[in-house]
Amino acid sequence: MSKPAKFGTFLGVYTPSILTILGLIMYLRFGWVVGNVGLWNTVLIVVMASSITFITGLSASAIATNIKVGVGGQYYMVSRSLGLEPGGAIGIPLYLCRTLSVTFYCYGLAEAILALYASSFGDVDPMALRLLTIGFIILVTALSGKSAKLVLKSQIPIMIIVGASILALLIGVLTKDLKAPVTDATYITAPEGFWYVFAVFFPAVTGFTAGISLSGDLKDPQKSIPRGTLGAALSGLVIYLIIPVLLSVTAVLSVEQLTDLDGGITVWTRLAVLGPWIIYPAVWGAVLSSAFGSILGGPRILQALSMDGLAPKFLSKLSKSGQPTVATWISGFLALSAVFIGGLNTLAQFVSVLFLTLYVAVNVSAAVEQLIKEPSYRPKVHVPWYVSLFGAAGAMIVMWLISPLAFILALGLEALIFIYLISRKMEQQWGDASTGIWMHISRYALLKLNAKKITPRNWRPIIILFVNNLKDYMNLVKFAEMLGQNSGVLTISKLITTANKEELARRNEITFDMQKELAKEGLQALTEVHVVEDLKQGMYNVAASHGIAGLKTNMVIFGWSRTGKGKKKELGVIHDLARSGKNILMLHFKNPLTKKNNNRIDIWWRGLDSNGDMMLLLSYLITLNNKWKKAKINIMSIADTDEDVYSMEKRIRLSIKDARINATPRVILRAGEDTVGQLIEESKNADLVFCGLSRDINIIDQRVAHIDRVTGSLKAVAFVQNNGMKSKTPVIFKA
């Protein structure tokens, strides 16, 4: 494969940009603008329109000088700044705009040529117009698919001809009769007023981004994009300030002739030296150059979309000369298909508005980068955030002026694409400003939260769950996430010892792998990996100190170990954590919790250690989940006498009333010494059973046997140990 040609500032950015600026609207509508609004209003329109584009150019330059710009131009910039989904929402319509623009320009070129022919030989044949358009589309597609260098070099003579036409206008006006400039607004053929004229003229200044589309073909994008883009925008501004002065002072044409909608190019041909002989070739060349710019830019956007996974992979395939040939021919085919679409003028208006959303995105990207103050954001071109936002607001106003309906449809289309891309949960391999935005929001929220005192009213579960293999403990993860849904925070933590060299080397990958596993199950949780010397001591250290500011972890969840040694070690860690004030929840599920509707939750309460408070709160949180919303909560206890049964039931009912939670007390008489057996018998049909977890570490073998017996007999068991401080624990169950 031969090395693809790389271009510098002049050929790669400035030339396609300035030629797209000095396009068809300059020849067709400048006289119309001057005649309708007068010289000073025309200057105002030019300055206002150019200000919006120049600010957008500054914003694009700031982004380009901060990153290594790859293939895709504006799409690449937006996606690397705002993220893959916003980038795709802009990039996909942008590609369609570029592709349809090929059709519009080729159609306009064919119409301009045949119109000259028709002036001598009769009306334009619609079939001939369509065939000539198809021929031009095939021509520009074939040339751009073969070599971008050939296309860009062909624009040099076009630029010379366009420059010569402007010079011919200058000489022609100054060598003919002059008059005082036309300054009064007449609105002869624009009764809609000033803003209508502004909207019609604005597309004349939008071509400055044509060179950015070739970002992947530039030798030094960080240098060429700012110089070429801003240079083209400033050159266009100077030329656009000269032309209205010339048109307003000529005595050759009246105001009525300037405002004639059918006059178009004849305004230039009647004033310029050599008239039609230089103006018509310049017009044709300008339109052809714009078509070349679109057919070069569109496929490269499609190539970038393909590389990012937003389009089929084969579209990013390059030819031996380094051209995105497949993407180019696909684009050419779409452009050909558009020839057979009726109402091209209406579609062109929608495309113009859709294209302007790119301006909004580029300006917003630059503003966001400034506002979030990422340490990595160090552009060589600095633009204040409010300047970029002003450019974005200006672009949106112009969109509305062009067509309110097209404005709504364009934003609606991009919103739909954005929502679709979000639903795909795609993975991007680069950082973006959205992370910085959330960092700023999080920082603000944490500082505010840290200044507040967490009271029982504000308590919610901030959970850490220790797992070794996430897949093996997915039931625990689902249960833990259910406890914190819509209110709490769940962190899943994996511990790696320093002796495990393999996992140690890929600790960051493990974190993302855990996120992928959660995404497959439709779960949301924080994931983290900690490196420790010893698992037991590491578990204690991580859990005891876990959290930040007002989001300090208040609950640690364990799954009951599967080995005898592991069970004893686990109870030892729990005993140590009790002193740190962390609440403990130890879970064991005999079978996966796959039932659609779970009907019964039993809470076994002995009136000790305040565990009942926590168990009732957790039961309530579980019933907020759809699969458990019909579950009946039973508060179970054992009493020695009928009198104790009555007394305890009464106390429980009063506590339930204070707690405002629907639950049913069930106090039963002790049937012997085997309390555990009675518990098992009473709750064998329960879908979930809560039990208190003793703090006694001295009889560890007996505790292991007790827990094993309960977990081996019941469907699902949660052992709870309430170690929270009184000021931090939700006192909802007073016994």
Keywords, please?
735 residues; alpha/beta; Amino acid/polyamine transporter I; Rossmann fold; ten-stranded mixed β-sheet; 10 strands; 59% helix; elongated; disordered C terminus
Description of the molecule:
The protein is of the alpha/beta class and 735 residues long. The protein folds into 2 domains: 9-97 and 157-283 and 346-424, Amino acid/polyamine transporter I, CATH 1.20.1740; 452-721, 3-Layer(aba) Sandwich (Rossmann fold), CATH 3.40.50. It is 59% helix and 9% strand. The protein has a 10-stranded mixed beta sheet, with helices on both faces. The protein is elongated and about 120 Å long.
CATH architecture of the largest domain: Up-down Bundle
CATH superfamily of the largest domain: Amino acid/polyamine transporter I
Number of helices: 25
Low-confidence regions: 725-735
Quote the CATH topology of the largest domain.
Answer: Amino acid/polyamine transporter I
Envelope shape: elongated
Computed over alpha carbons, the radius of gyration is 36 Å
Indicate the percent of residues in helices: 55-70%
What oligomeric state do these chains adopt?
single chain
The main sheet comes to: 10 strands, mixed
Overall mean pLDDT stands at 83
Instruction: Give the strand content.
Output: 5-15%
Number of domains: 2
* Class based on secondary structure composition and strand pairing: alpha/beta
**What strand order characterises the main sheet?**
3-2-1-4-5-10-9-6-7-8
